[in-house]
Amino acid sequence: MTKADPVASELEASSPTEARDIGQKSEAHLPGDVAVWVFVLGDLIIFSSYFIIFMVDRNRDPDLFLQSQQHLDLNIGVVNTLILLASSWCVARSVVAARNGEYQHAMMFTVAGGLCGVLFVLIKIYEWSSKISQGMTLPSNHFFMYYYMLTGVHLFHVLLGLVILAVVLAELRNPRLRRMKMVEIGATYWHMVDLLWIVVFALVYVVR
């Protein structure tokens, strides 16, 4: 009696969709599907309008924006940026591992990316609570109105991204549910969230 081929066993336990995904992993294609890219592009357009309005208002009262900006902790912004960059790297590695059929590694990297996202949320909550305790709230002035709005909308996107990564992880754990498309959708959305934060960080924390 010959030993069962572990790769063959894995494929047999997988759904036909997963088998097709594995067979096509080397072909060039648009990651995820068209719908998620339409959503991403729409979201980028909406955020771009927020950024333009922010810059127009900042030019109207640069002294107020500069004085208010100096109350923010640049170190916290840098740490959160590095955390999200690390999370993007982990999610990218998860996609590569899934395409190679290395599902344990894909799950490990997905969890690592999600934990980075959770850490980002906790640091952002700490930062908000610190500013609120100092009397810097949404109605304080135009700068803090934009600060809470931009970081708040972005935080919502991070939380939604964590839900999507949880779905990706659940599918990776179940051989009959694994879909390469879902892994790519999760990564596409997560990279968009990270890109948006880089712009928010630059405008709100860095640009003088």
From TrEMBL:
Coiled-coil ranges from the UniProt annotation: none
Matches recorded under InterPro entries: Cyt_c/ubiquinol_Oxase_su3, Cyt_c_oxidase-like_su3, Cyt_c_oxidase_su3-like_sf, Cyt_c_oxidase_su3_a-hlx
Membrane topology: Multi-pass membrane protein
Pfam families: COX3 (PF00510)
SUPFAM superfamilies: Cytochrome c oxidase subunit III-like (SSF81452)
Keyword Ribosomal protein appears in the UniProt entry: no
Superkingdom field: Bacteria
Keyword Chloroplast among record annotations: no
Record-annotated membrane-spanning stretches: 34-56, 76-96, 108-126, 146-169, 189-207
Keywords of the record: Membrane, Transmembrane, Transmembrane helix
Domain annotation Heme-copper oxidase subunit III family profile: ranges: 34-208
Subcellular localization, as worded in the UniProt entry: Cell membrane; Membrane
Catalytic activity annotation: 4 Fe(II)-[cytochrome c] + O2 + 8 H(+)(in) = 4 Fe(III)-[cytochrome c] + 2 H2O + 4 H(+)(out)
Family: Belongs to the cytochrome c oxidase subunit 3 family.
Record protein name field: Cytochrome aa3 subunit 3
